[in-house]
User: Fold these one by one.
Assistant:
Number 1:
Amino acid sequence: MTDLPHLPEHARANREAWDRFAADYAEPGRRNWAAAEPHWGIWHVPEAELRLLPDDLAGRDTIELGCGTAYVSAWLARRGARPVGIDNSPAQLETARRLQDEFGLHFPLHLGIAEELPFEAASFDLAISEYGAALWADPYRWVPEAARVLRPGGRLVFYTNGPLLQLTMPESEAAGPAGRELLRPYFGLFRTEWPDDGSVEFHLPHGEWIRLLRETGFEVERLVEVRAPEDAVNDPRWTYVTPDWARQWPSEEAWVVRKRG
Ligand SMILES: C[S@@+](CC[C@H](N)C(=O)[O-])C[C@H]1O[C@@H](n2cnc3c(N)ncnc32)[C@H](O)[C@@H]1O
């Protein structure tokens, strides 16, 4: 467990933010736990379309980095994997534990940050993050940690906002959703602090993702720029992008990378 005083400043801000957001994620978390088939991101694109998960999950050790309510790990468990989840928010983990009891599906959950994983090197076959570490953790610290805990040949799959969205999203929710104007520079894209709630996100330009991933020992297999489905509807929790915008530009993306060796 990572004590609050030792948390990096962004992780402390995000723990406070996610402990506040957690109540709003409990019911959607339950719906996702109950889903028969995995789906991804705010547009709920089916796994059958994106094919982000390895086919051979049976008996595989998986770690979910920023598991939140841990529905992704529940999906992995139902496919035969041995999941472990780690998250920075005690309140999110409380929801995850309640849902484990409700669905009768238990796996280890740890309080901690993806930048400092409490696991031995080469412990996992798959590291995965859907809007967890992928968005909220410092990539220059969590990506090397993911590489360390993966076995050679293991995969890292992460799903987050695309850089075009990050460039066009106003600072405050009150200013409306992403538009067509570039509001911040692409070069140097890294850390964004949101004034509405004090949370801190991380994004990188694509070239920088590729450099970082390759330098930490990964081969990039796929970058999936996700298009919202034709019948996409906005979840009222997320007002920062419209389905119409996300039909024209990729608001979300998934990286599938493999550890060399
Ligand atoms: C949008 S949720 C995503 C998780 C999951 N897919 C879900 O929706 O429940 C983001 C999660 O990332 C966690 N998180 C933020 N920063 C983190 C960090 N540095 N390490 C691990 N988890 C982190 C938050 O506490 C939160 O539970």
Number 2:
Amino acid sequence: MPSFFIDADISKAKTIDTDFYTQQKFFEAAKEKIFAPSWQFIGDAGRIKESGDAYPFILLENYLNEPLLLTKGKQQSIHCLSNVCTHRGNLVVYEPCKLNQLKCRYHGRLFGLDGKFISMPEFKEVQDFPTKEDDLHQLPLFTWGNLLFTSLDKQYKATDFLSEMIQRVEWFPVHDLQFRSELSRDYPVEANWALYCENYLEGFHIPFVHAGLNQVLDFGEYSTEVFRYSNLQLGIGKKGDVCFDLPSTSPDHGKEVAAYYFWVFPNMMFNFYPWGLSVNIVEPLEVSNCRVRFLTYVSDESKLAKGAGSGLDVVELEDEEVVQNVQKGIRSRFYKYGRYSVKREQGTHHFHSLIAEFMQ
Ligand code: FES
Ligand SMILES: [Fe+2]
């Protein structure tokens, strides 16, 4: 498989080869090379409020397709487990429910809420049984406030990806966030998942694509900071706009911050506004199709629909249109790569560099 290369010097670098967005083999390879080792947002603890609650879900349905299960155990501990029975691979829990134990409906194998094997009918004669292999596979779980994250393998710690964000907004009321389904929605986008991400990764297009957003953000002050597996775009508000009231301990104290736009490799966006948090997850579906989930978490109702974090629907549709047109453009025989603005496209350069690193 050919490898991708991105020059570390943005002033010399060329963007990633368009094959990455158009070829099935790279779309497939990214499953194990990029997505399996990364950390993924899996919703909030409201899904499993009480002891005995079980919530089955598929991690990145239509892509990774990994059946997982969140449970709340007796001691209020949260577990993230494989939802696949260790006998013949049936799904253990079919829909959200409340249980004392997990009982597989196929042949009756019983597990605790922590995934530990308890019993199995008709298995008396089986040798070396049970072993640890008969427990449901336990995945690492990371919680930040009410927000939950997991990873399919143990290559990286969650903090490798998330700590810069958590530290930067440590004053943010993450424990008060309430999920609002009526303010959340999914958008189908006819473009490769990475094209959607890289559109998010530069504010360069804001004056051209988002007339409304451009009226509340001060484009001249807009900045990008690059970390190891994440980056931050700081949206500075224009005079008189709704901004954060930042504590003196914040490195941004004294600035008129209207929004923190954190992107976490490979496909997660955490947009902090004075009213709360908009989480965007880009889910790959096909090589030229993805689904973007906008999940809305409110902490201060009184600030909703004000400032940079209002009209997100309009901004999304404007982004969608341009990204879909780029997907059509990059199929061209005449376009293979482009160059980066040193001042305005550090985020895109960072993203491409990480893709090249993980696809090795
Ligand atoms: S598949 Fe679960 S008990 Fe057989
Ligand atoms: Fe945009």
